[in-house]
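**User:** I keep going back and forth on a fold encoding question. It is easy to fool oneself when nobody else works the same problem. Could you pick a protein and write out its sequence and tokenised fold? Could you put it straight underneath, so I can go through it closely?

**Assistant:**
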Amino acid sequence: MTTKEQRRQEWTARIADYKASGLTMSAWCDAHHVTKEQLKYWLRKLKVDPSEVVTTPTHWVPLTVADPIQFTNHAYLVVYIGSAHIEIRSGFDPRLLREVVQALEAPC
């Protein structure tokens, strides 16, 4: 068996494991030490229809604020994403915040 055939078999098994795991792409890739780009590449290469891939739905956690935050010139909110944090002040640009959070979540 050639190296190419071995790699194809290896990724066929990995994709089957991914589909059966019920994990998100990010979680599965982290657990198996591969990048999302590698997984996406092999899903395309092996022509696996993304609609066939079972993913778990996002579960939102309700948030209740006991006392409303009154923003002043000195008040801010700090959001932690991994080891990074973002200070949000009154008048922030929501689109910019969304782009920054997406960039921080992206694999390196």
Observations:
- The two ends are 33 Å apart (CA to CA).
